[in-house]
Amino acid sequence: MASPSVAVTSFPAEAVPQAPEDPLFGLMAAYRADTSPDKVDLGIGAYRDNSGKPWVLPVVKKAETIIHDDPTANHEYLPIAGLASFTSKAAELILGADSPAIAENRTISIQTISGTGAVHLGALFLAKFYHGNRQIYFSNPTWANHNQIFSNVNFATTTYPYFDKQSRGLDFSGMIGAIEAAPNNSVILLHACAHNPTGVDPTQEQWAKIADVIRKKRHLPFFDCAYQGFASGDLARDAGAVRYFVEQGFELLIAQSFAKNFGLYGERAGCFHFVAAPQKDTAATADTVSRVKSQLYFLQRSEISNPPIFGARVASTVLNDAALFSEWEENLRTMAGRIQSMRTALREKLEALGTPGTWNHITDQIGMFSFTGLTEAQVQKLRSDFHVYMTKNGRISMAGLNTNNVEYFAKSVDAVVRSA
Fold this sequence. Notes:
By secondary structure, the protein is α/β, with parallel strands linked by helices. The chain is built from 17 helices and 13 strands. It folds into 2 domains: 23-57 and 336-419, Aspartate Aminotransferase, domain 1, CATH 3.90.1150; 77-320, 3-Layer(aba) Sandwich (Aspartate Aminotransferase, domain 2). The strands form 4 sheets. Strands 2-10-9-8-7-3-4 form a 7-stranded mixed beta sheet, sandwiched between helices. Strands 1-12 form a two-stranded parallel ribbon. The chain has a two-stranded antiparallel sheet with strand order 5-6. The longest helix is centred in the last third of the chain and has 32 residues, at 322-353. This is Aspartate aminotransferase. Homodimer. Residues 38-412 form the Aminotransferase class I/classII large domain.
């Protein structure tokens, strides 16, 4: 019998180079492998309670019980656009139940694979159909996955200034200047609240100025909202920027995640919204909505066919029940309040130690993440000498701090800063 020929791959290294390891998941692996009892995980963006454990929201447990006990529940496919009782309430949550965009039927809402899937669906739609300046502007820095998602659909990316390293706050003049200098009809991605990774948000007055410039330049706003209710504990406040833009008559896109504010990380519940601008000719508006909806449905069908059901059912159960919704708001205040208390504790301990530098930015920033201002070398020393794990750009997840480790972390930072 003839011997088999030597196989030759169709995917040589020059065609398929080795991809770099995702730095965040690599950091998680290193943390898990560390055997030190003092190790501190400040990398992953997931809420932890004061014991450092994952927290299943009490209202989510109640919703799960209701679903489990429902004799009509089954595992049939959802429609292409998802669970309507979920997507309709998701739209009300981000836009406001009294939003003119909802009342005038100018919105399209499609269930997605969490916020990442919503960003991807929006990116794919823009890549296929956007006829403006085919370039999206991200804040510098932004969520690392933004660039990868748009690059994967061959949509050009660039950045606008955002973080001021000196003040550790917003570089507002740089941001406005770049948006104003961008070619007309560019796409501008904006973090609705609790900016990831800096924790720095524009003020209401600054949002109004941003809207003015975007209107003047005829740019298309694309909001990414991953932390509504989790940032301040107030759902309406955290949606303020999006609602302002809608009130101002913008056409816009929204990616909405329910991972953080419901603790549904692994259930991948999200929503993509398209909001059409109001027109004097209501028939023209209806035509725009109809055409966009048809193409979004077509893209969804070819991408995932139908979205997953369980996380959407959990969120829908809560969003459609007044008592459960009220309890959810209380759960949100619990999470946001603990994060805020850790910000206060960390700043107080660093200032009590006399750690060189200023630390007011720790409490000035908001949400899950804080840009500490630590250098990459200092971050590495924290990891090697003190078993503290955080991303190399100095971003920490405030959820990883608790009353048991915040003093240890503060003393570790103090030692590293002094040694530099």
